[in-house]
Amino acid sequence: MEILDGFSFKEIVTSFMVLFAVIDIIGSVPIIVSLQQKFGKIEAGKAAITAGAIMIVFLFVGNKILKLIGVDVNSFAIAGAFVIFVIALEMILGIEINKTTEAKAASIVPIAFPLVAGAGTLTTALSLRAEFHDINIICGIILNTIFVYLVLKSAKWLEKKIGDATLMILQKVFGIILLAISIKLFTANFAQLVLNYVNF
After folding, report:
1. What InterPro entries is this protein classified in (predicted)?
2. Cα(21)–Cα(175) distance, rounded to whole angstroms?
């Protein structure tokens, strides 16, 4: 039961919120609806489970890949902080840097990957390992997977109820949250790198 030793409700909530903001599934509702119109019924369960599996696998395999190429978690976390920073600017300023809107297949591509479990999400998940215990990040991923499933199942209803103006406000709010998180992630890991490599 060692995996449960680091269990923390606070870390679970934080992991969920960080990943939720990066995934931005609410902001992607218009894209999901357009894909549904283009390809017909979206297999919500298949897409959500696939996205969750990709994130959890990368959470562990990604670290092994880093060790193989000689990159420590702190350095990767700083790189992840820059990615999150760019995503936050994208959300706040309303610009598109790396947003996939075209598709050649439904459900798994492009919904599970790269819309949900994209480069930003995978980088963020791995970056969180520098701060939080694995069990808490996994719980955050599972909660997001459930939320993604619910959104995919009710995409049309959400679009009618929420509206474009509310979607835009939500994007701005989560963008600001992400911006603050990216700065915290950068400063914490940069300080650790200084301690590890600089001798005073």
Report:
1. Multi_antbiot-R_MarC
2. 7
